[in-house]
Write a structure and sequence with these properties.
Rossmann fold, 11 helices
């Protein structure tokens, strides 16, 4: 039976700020899963801590919330235990690039087949708006009255440099485009990064919906996402024009395909032979 968006609706009361970009991301994820004809019981959404990390609470599917910055290890562990699952990792720019920065780098290298939605609002939205790794230098707020002293992290360029299997960017207020980016990320075999420009209406009065609408530009048909040098140039573009779309794509074997034990099927479906364990234990007796 083909799933519908209603199948993913949760009765939980939503606690996001009115106008938060997370609403568009939530709807786009549901629509992408329906577009790919994936039923709720086949999906696991893993999140860390933060406003973005509340997303699994508002979906009727398997969900797991972990420590701040530890979204990817939990998502990868679940995928390797049962790689029949569609695993979606969700986190904010602080969660994923500060506390979780090393996990971000090494899981692009390992190339486990999960989709990572990076809700990028350029501040720590849950903890009152202090600068995050993606905050532009000079950004002023109640938490940085003299301006952020640091340049923003070039995480998409890092992803291209790490040969990430799939790198895309979208905007929370372009629902059709965002749905397509998430769907393509799910479909692509390997670690798929979807950077989502997401205004924070409470703590970021610079990178607003209007600010993004003036700057985001869909990539044209002339962009070749398999051209790494061209992808790097697009990943570094930030200012008057911000490209959105599939920036980079590579065909790399996933970790699941490289591990002999997983070629037999998901670990959860494989028989357990107690004698194997007893033999190992006997070596220590």
């Amino acid at each position: 039976m083909t799933p519908s968006v209603a199948d993913y609706n949760s009765p939980a009361e939503n606690a996001w700020c009115p106008g938060c970009g997370n609403f568009g991301i939530l709807m786009a994820l549901k629509q992408a899963l329906v577009l790919e004809e994936i039923a709720p019981h086949e999906v696991l959404v893993v999140s860390g801590v933060g406003q973005a990390a509340k997303l699994p609470q508002y979906m009727a599917c398997n969900a797991y919330t972990v420590l701040h910055g530890r979204t990817l290890p939990a998502a990868v562990g679940a995928k390797l235990a049962n790689h029949a699952l569609t695993v979606i990792a969700v986190g904010g720019d602080g969660d994923g690039l500060a506390e979780g920065g090393n996990h971000f780098i090494h899981n692009m290298r390992r190339n486990v087949d999960i989709t990572y939605l990076l809700n990028n609002n350029q501040v720590y939205g849950l903890t009152k708006g202090q600068p995050s790794p993606t905050t532009d230098q000079g950004f002023t707020s109640g938490m940085s009255p003299k301006g952020s002293p640091h340049p923003h992290m070039q995480h998409l360029a890092m992803a291209v440099a790490c040969n990430c299997a799939f790198v895309a960017r979208s905007f929370a207020a372009t629902p059709d485009h965002l749905t397509q980016m998430i769907a393509q990320g799910i479909r692509h075999k390997g670690f798929a990064l979807i950077d989502i420009l997401q205004p924070c209406v409470s703590y970021n009065d610079v990178n607003t919906y209007g600010w993004y609408r003036e700057r985001v530009r869909p990539l044209g048909d002339d962009h070749d996402p398999t051209d790494r040098q061209a992808a790097l140039a697009k990943a570094l573009a930030w200012g008057d024009e911000i490209p959105i779309g599939v920036i980079y794509r590579s065909a790399r074997p996933t970790l699941e395909a490289r591990l002999p034990a997983l070629r037999k099927g998901p670990l959860v479906d494989q028989p357990i032979d107690p004698q194997v364990g007893m033999k190992l234990l006997s070596e220590f007796s």
